[in-house]
Amino acid sequence: MALFAVLQTTFLLALLPLRTYQNEVLSEPLPLTPESLNVSINSTKQCLHLQWTVHSLDYHQELKMVFQIQISRFKASNVIWMGNYSTTVKRNQVLHWSWESELPLECAMHFVRVRTMVDDARIPAPRFWSNWSSWEKADAQSSLGDQPLYVFPKDKLVEEGSDVTICYISRNHQDNISCYLEDELTYGKQLDQNVWAFELKNVSFLRKSGTNFYCKGRGIPEGVVLFVSKVLEEPKDFSCETRDLKTLTCAWDPGKDTGLIQLPSYTLFESFSRKKTLCKHRNRCDWQVTQDPQETYNFTLVAENYFRKRSVNILFNLIHGVHPVAPYNLFPKNVNATHATMTWKVYSIGNNSALLCQLQLLGEGKVIQQHNVSVRVNGEYLLSELEPDTDYMARVCCAYADHFWKWSESISQKFTTGEAAPSEAPDVWRDVTFVSGHPTVTLFWKPLAKVHTNGKILFYNVVVENLDEPSSLEVLSVPAPANSTKVTLNQSSYQIHVTAHNSAGPSPASTVAISGHPGNENVEEGRMNGTEDGFPMSWKPQSRNATGYVVEWCDGPQNLPCILRWKNLGPTTTGTVISSGAFRPGVRYNFRIYEISTKRMAHLLEKKAGYLEELAPSYNPQVVMSNLTSHSFTLSWKDYPTESQTGFIQGYYVYLKSKAGEKCHHGFEKTVLPDNSVCCKYTIDNPDEKTFVVKALQPESVYEFLVTPYTSAGEGPLDDFTKVTTPDEYSHILLHIILPMIFCVLVVMITCYLKSQWLKDKCYPDIPDPYKSSVLSLIKFKENPHITIMNVNDCVPDAIEVVNKPEGSKTQFIGTRKSPTETKGTKPTYLDLLPTEKNYSGPGPCICFENFTYNRAASDLGYCGHFPVTPQAPPCQLGPLTSPENLLKTLEQNYMNSLGEIPAGEANLNYVSQLASPMSGDKESPPTNPPEPALCSEYKMQMALPLGLASPPPGEDSSLSSTTLSDPSQRH
Amino acid sequence: MKVLAAGVVPLLLVLHWRHGAGSPLPITPVNATCATRHPCPSNLMNQIRNQLGQLNSSANSLFILYYTAQGEPFPNNLDKLCSPNVTDFPPFHANGTEKARLVELYRIIAYLGASLGNITRDQKVLNPYAHGLHSKLNSTADVLRGLLSNVLCRLCSKYHVSHVDVTYGPDTSGKDVFQKKKLGCQLLGKYKQVIAVLAQAF
After folding, report:
1. What is the ipTM of this complex?
2. A682 partner at 20 to 30 Å CA-CA among A587, A744, A789, A913?
């Protein structure tokens, strides 16, 4: 306690002189020097932070003072900034003041000093500045390491459009350092021996990850990244609403992104309740309504980033900003063809307030009906006047009934009404063709319009009623979507009723009447021209009782299958325009106009043909040229179909070109073709005239012609001329002589060639070969199956002399007989003319023929022997032995005459062949033996001998036969 | 004693703690027990080789993606800004024993895994829309993790080594953005270089 008392006394004693001093200060101004000046560096903000005190003030004294601050760079004498700072100061108060440097503080040493002056109204003038404080140094470089190069400021955040200064410190004075903004070289100014600064003006946003600024010398490049922020925009469209009177939601458009990783903050402040909330989203914020509901809110939205602060304000009435939640569970109920009940639910708001709901009915995307319904929890509405079998969509949205502000989001539900019977009869037409006098009716009908079908058409009923036989009723059911059917009728009158059916029932019937007989089809066809709108046509009514008219046509060209179209017109109509998207220029369309009688019978009124637009012919006819003479030729193009052209053919142009460039003949006119060649042109103005004779031509001249049709739109292509050369005047005469002559010569040559062998045989016959003799065929013809030719080896000419003489002479030859081996060299030929009996092995009767190619006189001198012929002659010898029948007859006649001298009772004869000359058998083989008188050297008519006279000894017969068979190769 | 435990030990820990860096620890003695959480597959070395090959094949594209995303001056100053002169990178001796090589591989993979984590973190902030780079970084980190696990399994199962001392690269979180970009580029350049050597060595 004693110690405490001593201290208290000392304190009071010390206060006493202080009080005295205070009184003196107030009475006269004294300079108050700032003390304890401290300078620190904030590198991030590039700020020098100063703090100091003024100790000289009295206790409890507050003075308004002005502080003058000087800042120097690099050295104290280099003052770069000086300014005043005014504030009220208390004794021992630590004063703070910051200064932001445009140059990064790391790049330069800074010096700061402060002086002060009292600026208080209580202190009378004059006023004096105190002394400057001592220079305080701010040196950021001392904390740097020993890197050769530094670039500052690090990670600087700047706003787009602002200026920024970047500097580098190089430890190496010799290094030549260049700096770049991204890849663009930047020029700076030297601030100190080691320091350069670069002032970047109006920096722009490049990318969210920053803009690189770097410097490089010989070492590793060093750099910094500038983060450029776009200017923070003021929030737009700031509004608040509530869905349930419990939570407020304020929303706004934040504008474009600032482009920084650090997003701006949004704060919602309510001034009445003085509450604020930091928004979690950049475009909306939730605000909880308190239990004691506040009706009016004054909201301020503050958007803030490093550089700016933006705010918007709104005065909001809770009741006026109710935006209900969308209704739910919207369903159709009790849906039939024309009615449907829609039900839905809503979320209650506040104290079960009513909602105004809008029910919209949409069909094909358009609002058809719209109804407002007041709803608390459940909504219901009966929709009427609906179309059967139609897709609808019901849509509901609701709004706060007490104060309408905004519709809720809508919900929708699709539904389809039920079907009803089709409301209209189908549009029916018919095509009647008569086959064998019986009408065949093809009924066509158009699909009903959607508005009339009232459902899906399932089938069409066709009822055929025979008016002549009322009891006869035929019913056809054609399933949809077919639109035609064919009915074959008798020659009676009929009424055909067509109805369309859906699941709800049939449509009204459409009736057509058919007469059993063809009507008047001989109506002359008229022509008409189409227009852009279609084919306008009119007609004259024939009867006053017509119930309507039908125009019928085909949609396609004539060469295509007809797609039958028709148009129904009322009874008072006498004209219409037929239009169709299928109509094309250059296509001929045929129209038929029918009048419908009261009995629904159709009578043909008129036929019309026309083109929507006539075109020039696309091709020329195939012209056939005939009757070419030296002065004329005929052109013909009868196959050219005028009906199927691209326009009405009005005629033809015949173009004629001559190389000589002659004058055009009568009827032709000179014309210049598109290729500038000149030719003559003849006009045929009758489209049915399809031949033309070009006359008055020069012989032996070259002409070119072309026939092209023309329509009202022009003529056909002029690009395919045909050349023709007229002959000279005599050529036809020569032609008439030379051609037959050549033909005759050819015929003769061909005949000679074909009959050369025959001619040779006739004119220059070879030495007869018995094997090839026609006599063999004669024998064959006489049906002797055992014919053969006697082998030369078998021939023993001197064995028997065949003489038609008395038997006495027979023995003269016996002694002169030679063996077969002896006769081999002469190769005599023997011909077996008539067959012998099968079982006969002995000699038989024979006939000796005379060869007329030999001298008859000489033949008379020769010998001719005959031998029995062996029946075992090879059958192959018979093959070639065929001869013409006439020759056979001739021979028969001759031989029969000869045989006439033989007694008729001798049926079996042996023929004795005459010996051939040694030269005749084989021309190439020289005669080995000279001819002997004993051999037969000529053919001679053989005489039939009685069997008994010609019989050789039996033993010799058998030996001869065997020789013949053993050596067939010797035969010729 | 409690006061000592509560005050002195944390103080010592704080004093010796360096963010992102680990102090070397000795290799587990051979006779120490070594158990892995899961049984090691039989074809471990094949898997290690395949993973190294996979990393080697994608290292260059990752490097290109990285420096392209950083903007100039990186693509045109690769030799200076992205030179693979990482000072404290763990060494590798290709001619050592398999055990020594696996231990060195483990250290390298651990170093790379941590550095890649830093790069991935930085790039997600600096280049939020470089999704291709992020994806590549993540997939590389995944393979590195698998490789690390396999190497450890091999070391444990065959050489009974369960712990290997590892070092990590510098933490970039306190550095300026340009330095982050540069360090990342250098690390990926080094990664591209060293992974080729590793793939060849195994």
Report:
1. 0.75
2. A587
